[in-house]
Design brief:
The structure is a single chain. With 115 residues, the protein is mostly helical. Helix content is 83%, strand content 0%. The longest helix is centred in the middle third of the chain and has 25 residues.
Length: 115
Amino acid sequence: MKIVYWVATLAMCGIMLFSAQMYFRNTEMVRGFFENLDYPTYLVIPLAIAKILGIIVILTNKIKWLKEWAYAGFFFDMVLAFTAHYVKDDGQGLFAILGLLFLVISYASSKKVRP
């Protein structure tokens, strides 16, 4: 169960970290994506910061209620990302689906592995 937890958690965190670094490194390109998906562009940098903080909170596992919020934030981020890509029919929702899958596995197994 520990292996399942760590694989899913690291995969989910890897997806979020990849996303956050794209937001920082290619801000203008990401702003273009946000505009295309009808999201406000002022969210790009705060969302990248929130993703980094969420990764830290989940991996350190120090404050339980904050870890729950981090999982919830990631859940809403990925659901909204998938929904936006689905509505635009641009075929770019794969990372959101994978992220959601890894999130569910990570969250469920974390209750047993890191209570």
